[in-house]
Amino acid sequence: MRKLCAGNWKMNGLRRDAVALASALAVRAKAEPVACDLLVCPPATALAWVADALAGSGIVLGGQDCHAAEKGAHTGDVSAAMLKDAGCGVVILGHSERRAGHGESDAEVRAKCEAAGRAGLGVILCIGETLAERDAGRTLAVVSRQLEFSLPDGFGAPDLAIAYEPVWAIGTGRTPTVAQVEEVHTHIRATLAARLGDAGSVRVLYGGSVKPDNAGALMAAANVDGALVGGASLVAADFWAIARACA
C-alpha cells in the first residue's frame, strides 16, 4: 500500500502563515511529486483558506478533531459534517493532547469516530502510552485497550488509519528506538487482524518527534505505513523531506 505522510499543524498559524505554508506545499507537490499520499490538518479557522491553496495539488485536507454530535448546542465545537462541508476528507481523533488536555475517554473518542464515519470522513485514530506506562511495562496493554474501546465495530480500510504516538515522544525531541516502534506496530497490526479479520490495508502510522533526520529509519521499520508529523509539518522543506522518506 502507499504510505501516508500527514501533517498535524495543531494550534499554529494565522491566515497569512497557513496560506503561505499550504501554497508552498502545493508548489512542491506539482514540481517534486512523491510516491506517497499527503494530508495536512490545519486549525479549523484556516480550513477554507488552506483548501483554496491546495486546490489541484492532490494534497488532502483534514481536520484535527470533531464533536460526536452532528449539530446542536455545543459552543466552540466543530462537527464532522462541518469538516466534510469545508472540504476535509479525514479527521484526526483521539490525539493524546485531546485525551489529556480535554479529558477525552476512549468512549468519547469512539463516538467521534462513529460521527466521522456517518459524515463520510476517514479517521486517523491516535493511540499511545505515557512515559510512566512505558516504564511500567504496560505499553502493549495500553495500546490494546485504546484500540478495543476507541475503535468502533465495522471500521476498517479505506476509512481508517491508526497512529501510534508515544505520549512521551510528542514534541520532546525523543523518539523510541526502531526496535521499539516495530514491536508496537507489529502488535497493533496483529490486534487489528484479530478484530477486523483483514487488517493488511489499514495503515499504521508513527508519530512523535518525526523529523527529517530520523524519518528514513522510522519509515523503513516493519509495519510502519507512514507518519503523523507535528512540529516538522510547519516547515515545508522538512515536511517534504519526511514525505520523501515515506515514499
Brief summary:
This protein has 247 residues and is of the alpha/beta class. It is built from ten helices and eight strands.
Kindly describe this structure.
The protein is an alpha/beta fold. It has one domain: Aldolase class I (TIM Barrel, Alpha-Beta Barrel). The chain has 10 helices and 8 strands. The protein has helices at about 15-30, 45-55, 80-85, 95-100, 105-120, 130-135, 140-150, 180-195, 210-220, 235-245, and strands at about 5-10, 35-40, 60-65, 90-95, 120-125, 160-165, 205, 225-230. Strands 1-2-3-4-5-6-7-8 form an 8-stranded parallel β-barrel, surrounded by 6 helices. Helix 1 (about 15-30) runs parallel beside helix 2 (about 45-55), helix 7 packs parallel to helix 8 (about 180-195) and helix 9 runs parallel beside helix 10. The longest helix is centred in the last third of the chain and has 19 residues, at about 180-195. The radius of gyration is 17 Å and the shape is globular. The termini are close together.
Helix content bin:
40-55%
Provide the structure class: alpha/beta
Query: Roughly how many Å is the radius of gyration?
Result: 17 Å
Question: Termini distance?
Answer: 11 Å
Q: Report mean pLDDT, rounded to a whole number.
A: 95
Number of helices: 10
Biggest sheet details:
8 strands, parallel, barrel
CATH class: Alpha Beta
Keyphrases for this structure?
about 250 residues; alpha/beta; TIM Barrel; eight-stranded parallel beta barrel; 10 helices; 8 strands; globular
Task: Describe the secondary structure blueprint for this structure.
Layout: E1 4-8, H1 15-31, E2 37-41, H2 47-54, E3 60-63, H3 80-85, E4 90-93, H4 96-101, H5 106-119, E5 122-127, H6 131-135, H7 139-150, E6 160-164, H8 178-196, E7 203-207, H9 212-219, E8 226-229, H10 236-246
Parallel strand pairs: 1-2, 1-8, 2-3, 3-4, 4-5, 5-6, 6-7, 7-8
